[in-house]
C-alpha cells in the first residue's frame, strides 16, 4: 500500500553477529532526512546505537542516491523522486541487553530502536516487518501478524516491538480472560522453577487487581525472560516486556521472589509509563534527550508496588514485605547523595547521571527509582490516614490520563492530593524539589515501624578500596568520612599501615581499630606521602522492624496500609 514502509531483517548468518537491514518506501517529499534513534524509551540516556551501523546505501530505480551526513545519526537525501527507494545497511549486533541488539548462533534478541531507521514523513505511516533466519529458528514479535509478516500502525509501534529469534517456543499463560505468551530463553543450571508459569499468572493478575482493569495489552502480550550467567533488568513495552535475570541470583534464598518482583514491575509498566505517560513523552523524540521529572513517578511508583505484588499475589507474606521494603529504604538512608540531589533533579538528570554513574556518584546523586519508591511509601501511608491510598490515586490518574492517551504533569497529581489533603500536596512539592526532605523515620513511625542501625563488623574508613594487580587503590573517599579527613583521594595507592606493607584491601581493615589513629603510607602519582587515618564505628545498613509498643492507632493504620488496594 502506498505510503507504507517495508522493513526486512536478515539473520540468516548469525555467526557473523550482524543484522542486515533493508527498508523500502516511496518518498512523499523531494527532501528526505534519515534518522537513526539515539535512545530507547524506558532507558533514558543517549546510547548512540548508530555507532554499530555501517555500509549505508540508498538506491532508487534510477540508480544510487547520494547521502549527506547532517549529524552522527542523520543523513540527508536531496532532490529525490517520488518513486520506490531502497535503503540498506548493516548493524553489528554483539551487545546482549534489553535495549540493544544481539545475534549469535544460539539466538537473537534486539530492540528495534537499535536497528531501524526513521524515514522522513513516515513517522505515522504503517510499517511492515519481515525477518529471515535459519529454518530451525522461530521468530517472536508482539506485533500483529498480517500475511507473511508483522504490521505496525506507525514507526512508534514498530520501535516498541522487540524481536526474539531462536530454536525455542513460546508457551501460553492466562491473566484473567486474556491469553499471553511466555518465552523462556536460557537454561538455568537447576532448571526453571516448576511453579514459574503459575506464579507469573498470579503476579500479573495481582497487578490487574491493583489497577482495577484487565491488562491493557489484551491478548497480544509477550513476556520474555532471558536467564543468563550475569545481568539483571528489564524493559517495558506496550505489548511486551523483556527481562534478564542471572543464575546466581535465582539460586539465592530471595532470588525467586526478586524475579517475580521484576515480572510485576515490568507488567505494571503496561499502565504506568507506557500508557500513563509523562507529558514530555507524548510523542517520543528519538533524536534528542527528553527531560522529564515525571520519571520519578514512572519508575518510583512502579518500584514501590513491585515490592507489594508478591504479597497481593499470595506468593509472599507480610514479614517478607517488611524485609524487602526495609532493604529498599535502607539504601536510600545510606546514600549520601540524597542530601545533594532532589528527587525531581534525579529524574531530570537521568540522561547524564543515573545511567553514567561511577563509584563516586553516590556522594552527589540518588536514584529516582529508589528515592521514588521511598516517596511512594510516604505518600501511601499519609493517604491511608485520610482513608485513601496510593493505588486509588494511581487508578484515578489512569482513568483521566492513561486510558485516553493524555500526558500528565506534576500538577495533575497534586490536584488529586489536594482534594484529599492539601497539606500532603504541599509536602509532595517539597519532597520533589528539596534534597533530603523525605521524613522516612516519621512516616514509618505512623504505622508503628522503626529503623534500627546494623553496625559494621569492621572499622569504617570512609574509603572504597579496590585490589588492582597486587596494589590497593582508593576508588572513593566518602564525604565527611575518615578517609576524606585524612586527605586521601581516589587514585591514591595505599602502601602501608603503621609501617606494615599491605597488598590487599582486606588487609587494610584488619590492621585498623576504631578511634585508633594509624599512619598510612600512600603513593599519589608515583610520589610517596603519609597521613593519619582515624577509623570510626559505622553503620552497615538500617533494619526496618515493628515497634513492640505500637499504639492501637498505629496498629490500625498498619493494617490499613497492608491492604494496598
Shape designation: globular
Write down how many β-strands occur, each being a DSSP E stretch of 2 or more residues: 29
Oligomer status: single chain
Strand content: 25-35%
Q: CATH top level of the largest domain?
A: Mainly Alpha
The major β-sheet equals: 8 strands, mixed
Could you characterize what this model shows?
By secondary structure, this protein is an alpha+beta fold. It has 4 domains: 5-166, Immunoglobulin-like, CATH 2.60.40.3650; 171-265, Neutral Protease, domain 2, CATH 1.10.390.10; 279-448, Orthogonal Bundle (Neutral Protease, domain 2); 463-537, Pdz3 Domain (Roll). It is built from 15 helices and 29 strands. It has an 8-stranded mixed beta sheet. Strands 23, 24, 25, 26, 27 and 28 form a 6-stranded antiparallel beta sheet that branches. A hairpin with a 2-residue loop joins strand 17 (171-175) and strand 18 (178-185). The radius of gyration is 26 Å and the shape is globular. The protein starts with a strand and ends with a helix. 40% of the residues are buried. The model has no long low-confidence stretch (mean pLDDT 97).
Amino acid at each position: 500500500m502506498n505510503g507504507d514502509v517495508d522493513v526486512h531483517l536478515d539473520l540468516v548468518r548469525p555467526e557473523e553477529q550482524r543484522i542486515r537491514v533493508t527498508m523500502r518506501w516511496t518518498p512523499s517529499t523531494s527532501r528526505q532526512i534519515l534518522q537513526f534513534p539515539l535512545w530507547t524509551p524506558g532507558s533514558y540516556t543517549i546510547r548512540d546505537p548508530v555507532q554499530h551501523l555501517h555500509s549505508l546505501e540508498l538506491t532508487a530505480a534510477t540508480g544510487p542516491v547520494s547521502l549527506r551526513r547532517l549529524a552522527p545519526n542523520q543523513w540527508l537525501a536531496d532532490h529525490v523522486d517520488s518513486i520506490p527507494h531502497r535503503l540498506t545497511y548493516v548493524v553489528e549486533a554483539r551487545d546482549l541487553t534489553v535495549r540493544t541488539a544481539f545475534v549469535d548462533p544460539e539466538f537473537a534478541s534486539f530492540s528495534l530502536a537499535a536497528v531501524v531507521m526513521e524515514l522522513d514523513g513516515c513517522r505515522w505511516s504503517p510499517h511492515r516487518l519481515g525477518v529471515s533466519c535459519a529454518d530451525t529458528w522461530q521468530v517472536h514479535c508482539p506485533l500483529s501478524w498480517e500475511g507473511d509478516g508483522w504490521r505496525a500502525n506507525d514507526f512508534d509501534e514498530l520501535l516498541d516491538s522487540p524481536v526474539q529469534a531462536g530454536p525455542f517456543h513460546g508457551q501460553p499463560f492466562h491473566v484473567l480472560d486474556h491469553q499471553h505468551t511466555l518465552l523462556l530463553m536460557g537454561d538455568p543450571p537447576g532448571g526453571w522453577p516448576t511453579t514459574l508459569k503459575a506464579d507469573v499468572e498470579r503476579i500479573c493478575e495481582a497487578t490487574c487487581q491493583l489497577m482495577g482493569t484487565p491488562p491493557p495489552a489484551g491478548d497480544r502480550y509477550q513476556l520474555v525472560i532471558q536467564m543468563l550467567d550475569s545481568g539483571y533488568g528489564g524493559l517495558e513495552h506496550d505489548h511486551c516486556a523483556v527481562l534478564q535475570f542471572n543464575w546466581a541470583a535465582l539460586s539465592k534464598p530471595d532470588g525467586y521472589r526478586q524475579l517475580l518482583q521484576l515480572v510485576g514491575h515490568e507488567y505494571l509498566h503496561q499502565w504506568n509509563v507506557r500508557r500513563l505517560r509523562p507529558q514530555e513523552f507524548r510523542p517520543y523524540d528519538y533524536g534528542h534527550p527528553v527531560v522529564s521529572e515525571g520519571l520519578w513517578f514512572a519508575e518510583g511508583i512502579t518500584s514501590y508496588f513491585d515490592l507489594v505484588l508478591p504479597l497481593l499475589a499470595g506468593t509472599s507474606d507480610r514479614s517478607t514485605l517488611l524485609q524487602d521494603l526495609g532493604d529498599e529504604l535502607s539504601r536510600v538512608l545510606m546514600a549520601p547523595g540524597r542530601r545533594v540531589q532532589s528527587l525531581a533533579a534525579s529524574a531530570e538528570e537521568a540522561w547524564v547521571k543515573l545511567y553514567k554513574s561511577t563509584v563516586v556518584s553516590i556522594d552527589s546523586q540518588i536514584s529516582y527509582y529508589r528515592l521514588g519508591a521511598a516517596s511512594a511509601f510516604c505518600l501511601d501511608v499519609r493517604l491511608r490516614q485520610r482513608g485513601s491510598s496510593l493505588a486509588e490515586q494511581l487508578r484515578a490518574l489512569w482513568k483521566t490520563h492513561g486510558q485516553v492517551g493524555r500526558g500528565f504533569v506534576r500538577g495533575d497529581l497534586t490536584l488529586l492530593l489536594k482534594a484529599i489533603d492539601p497539606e500532603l500536596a504541599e509536602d509532595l512539592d517539597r519532597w520533589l524539589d528539596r534534597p533530603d526532605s523525605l521524613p522516612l523515620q516519621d512516616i514509618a513511625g505512623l504505622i508503628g515501624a522503626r529503623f534500627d542501625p546494623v553496625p559494621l563488623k569492621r572499622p569504617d574508613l570512609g574509603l572504597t578500596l579496590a585490589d588492582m594487580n597486587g596494589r590497593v587503590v582508593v576508588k572513593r573517599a566518602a564525604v565527611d568520612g575518615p578517609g576524606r579527613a585524612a586527605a586521601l583521594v581516589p587514585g591514591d595507592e595505599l602502601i602501608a599501615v603503621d609501617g606494615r606493607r599491605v597488598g590487599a584491601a582486606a588487609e587494610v581493615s584488619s590492621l585498623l581499630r576504631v578511634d585508633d589513629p594509624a599512619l598510612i603510607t600512600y603513593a599519589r602519582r608515583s610520589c610517596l606521602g603519609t597521613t593519619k587515618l582515624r577509623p570510626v564505628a559505622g553503620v552497615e545498613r538500617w533494619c526496618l522492624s515493628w515497634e513492640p509498643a505500637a499504639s492501637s492507632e498505629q496498629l490500625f493504620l498498619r493494617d490499613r496500609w497492608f491492604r494496598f488496594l
